[in-house]
């Protein structure tokens, strides 16, 4: 097969997958926009985006707390095992947007705390992160789950408070049996959540755009042979592309998902 023929076949496959992904929009009307929407295929968890936004100033949480984003399993794409737990592992330290760049110097010793489904506290600060994995909830009989856990921001005096700016944390989702820390399935790479604390919309979106550049764009999971490219832009829309290693230096395109809210 000539290089020109191979190029044409790959582009045809990409075009067909893009068309399929676009045609499938609207199939999951029950999914909540803006939520983390995981699904499982084999031992790997896939997610609708690598970057999510939240606001400590939302109506439900007030100025220093929120229960967004929620976690809403996309059962149409792939279910989890009923009775198992969907969980998260903290990754890296808390970062702060100072208006120009993301830094690990936190202005007033702020930390973000997550209260999980069993009331455990998982904490992120500028120099430390909890080693304990959190629990989002138990998988239902349909293989799905829709839960919201609590995020709060505290300052150095242990008061609900936070310097105006944006804050970024990272999580890695995994599935385990109930009361067991051993992962049954796991995401290949972390997801990031960026929280707005008192910024106007334009300033916050600048922080979000910069946070997207912090995420590794291409991740290869040797366990599954899957190469994930977080953002490929086509026709003004960002897509997450997954390819399977099929030997030597060859990869087969297997999946395309629109990155909701992608810049």
Structure, described:
This protein has 263 residues and is mainly beta. It has one domain. The strands form 4 sheets. Strands 1, 2, 3, 6, 7, 10, 13, 14 and 15 form a 9-stranded mixed beta sheet that branches. The two termini are 37 Å apart. The N terminus is likely disordered.
Individual helix count: 2
The unreliable regions are: 3-10, 12-29
Report the radius of gyration as a whole number of Å: 19 Å
Which percent bin holds the helix content? 10-25%
Number of separate structural domains: 1
SS class: mainly beta
Question: How does the overall form come out from the CA principal axes?
Answer: globular
Question: In short, what is this structure?
Answer:
The chain is mostly beta strands. The protein has one domain (about 30-215). The protein has helices at about 5-25, 200-210, and strands at about 40, 45, 50-55, 65, 70, 85-95, 100-105, 110-115, 120-125, 135-140, 145, 150-155, 165-175, 185, 190-195, 220, 225-235, 235-245, 250-260.
Provide the descriptors you would attach to this structure in a database record.
9-stranded mixed sheet; mainly beta; 263 residues; disordered N terminus; 2 helices; 4-stranded antiparallel sheet
Helix/strand layout:
Layout: H1 3-24, E1 38-41, E2 44-47, E3 51-55, E4 65-66, E5 71-72, E6 85-97, E7 102-103, E8 111-115, E9 121-124, E10 134-138, E11 146-147, E12 150-154, E13 165-176, E14 183-187, E15 191-197, H2 201-212, E16 218-221, E17 226-234, E18 237-247, E19 250-258
